[in-house]
Design goal:
456 residues; alpha+beta; Aminopeptidase; Alpha-Beta Plaits; 8-stranded antiparallel β-sheet; 6-stranded mixed β-sheet; elongated
């Protein structure tokens, strides 16, 4: 890497850390829309904060009515390279050792929701751009940083952005992992609705999960009936070697299932608390729609019992996550998140889900088609060369079940900022960003942008 760029990044490490802490203090969660704030006031506040900070760094910022913003540098002739990140976050959930929106520094780490997904990586890209500018590296094409406020929900930000300005064709999203992801699975988010069942076990209360794309780490359900059911829960927990709690009161029995939360695209090593709860309720006598859901989904993450299990060479196996399950006044409501191989027939998968869950009405909340950029493209080879030069490690393109803004580009890939031996932290409690890793990611991004945009 250019020595001036490297030196500038090292000199501004603490500035990057301070800005990360400022951003994490804003709980940029989607909420009900307000005038000028289509995703709620906190996301609007986060976009405004970012715009102010970027202007303070010398960028001309364009804002898009509370949906997104962008900042560009370099010549305006040839189409720019895009860097797309997001400033919204998923709900904090349970299990935090520190307040999720009060950033805490411990050594090289900053703890807080959004440090790793995606505020930290966005800052690495921003500081990489600024280092290139301050080092006066001559550019043949521009660089445009695009920041949205709805990546964790419906991507309405990118739809609005594209409706109001031209989206570049080429670029990357710092919202996944190194070395590079050039294949993203299709995504199906499904809404499940069913009437409450008068037969079998009487579940009187349950409200678990906030988003389809989060593996819930804890689930609670209230059950009417014999207090002796508590002993049955404890016996089954011991038999299955799974962590459940059973507490009795005048209102009945409360069951708690303790899972291991995470991102729905990466279920390995996780344990879905809703799946655990369905397994327990089924064993205690749940009938009707709950029994169907327990039998067809349960604790599986591969969609086998749903009739959806499939895989291909470019993208690997399908994954399935039940992210929300709650008992409402009108009956049961739940969500399924399917991450589907690039060659899968999404309509056939949807038909299979409906056939396996006849007691449920299955609707489509969101459908994203798969995305693939050839491994021999200039974009992929340039980014991998930057990664290899900065890390000394060989780099090969990968696939993911995660969906990133790379999909909105004709030639877009996900590029960092998680390193191969790093802990997967997205959507988990105690999320943190290692500042040394963030600085290294900024160096990789600077190297990559010089390769793509610099004059020879």
């Amino acid at each position: 890497m250019n020595q001036q760029v490297s030196r500038w990044l090292k000199e501004h490490r603490e500035e990057m850390a301070d800005m990360l802490c400022r951003w994490v203090r804003i709980p940029s969660l989607r909420s009900d829309p307000e005038p000028g704030a289509p995703f709620g006031p906190e996301i609007r506040r986060m976009l405004d904060r970012a715009a102010e900070d970027l202007r303070g760094m010398g960028y001309a910022v364009r804002t898009f009515d509370g949906y997104a913003l962008d900042a560009s540098m370099g010549p305006e002739g040839e189409e720019p390279v895009a860097v797309l990140g997001h400033l919204d976050v998923v709900p904090a959930g349970d299990g935090w050792d520190t307040p999720p929106f009060e950033p805490v520094r411990k050594g090289n780490r900053v703890y807080g929701r959004g440090t790793n997904d995606d505020k930290g990586p966005v800052l690495a890209a921003l500081f990489a751009m600024t280092a290139i500018r301050e080092a006066r590296i001559p550019l043949k094409r521009g660089i445009r940083l695009i920041l949205g406020g709805d990546e964790e929900s419906g991507w309405e930000d990118m739809a609005y952005y594209q409706a109001h300005t031209e989206m570049p064709a080429t670029g990357f999203s710092p919202d996944a992992a190194f070395p590079l992801i050039n294949t993203e699975k299709a995504i199906l988010h499904l809404a499940l609705r069913a009437p409450a069942c008068a037969e079998g076990l009487a579940v009187t209360e349950m409200h678990t999960g906030e988003r389809p794309n989060v593996i819930p780490g804890e689930s609670r359900a209230a059950v009417a009936g014999d207090p002796a059911l508590a002993d049955r829960v404890r016996a089954l927990a011991a038999e299955w070697r799974l962590p459940y709690r059973a507490e009795t009161s005048e209102r009945g029995l409360t069951i708690t299932a303790e899972g291991i939360g995470g991102h729905s695209a990466h279920p390995d090593g996780r344990r879905n608390a809703i799946g655990m709860m369905l397994k327990m309720l089924r064993a205690l006598g749940a009938a009707g729609p709950l029994a169907e859901l327990a039998d067809a989904v349960g604790m599986e993450s591969d969609g086998k019992s749903l009739g959806c299990a499939c895989a291909d060479e470019p993208s690997g196996p399908l994954t399935c996550n039940i992210g929300i399950l709650r008992l409402e006044e009108a009956g049961w409501y739940g969500t399924l998140d399917l991450r589907c191989p690039v060659t899968a027939d999404l309509d056939a998968l949807l038909a299979s889900v409906r056939a396996k869950l006849p007691g449920w009405t299955v609707g489509v909340l969101e459908r994203k088609e798969p995305h693939h950029v050839p491994a021999d493209s200039e974009l992929v080879t340039s980014l991998l060369a930057a990664y290899e030069e900065e890390t000394g490690r060989p780099g090969k393109p990968m696939s993911t079940g995660g969906g990133t803004y790379a999909k909105v580009l004709k030639q877009g890939v996900a590029f960092g900022a998680l390193f191969p031996d790093d802990e997967e932290l997205a959507h988990q409690p105690n999320e943190y960003q290692d500042l040394d890793r963030l600085l290294q990611a900024a160096g990789i991004y600077a190297n990559a942008l010089i390769r793509l945009c610099g004059k020879e």
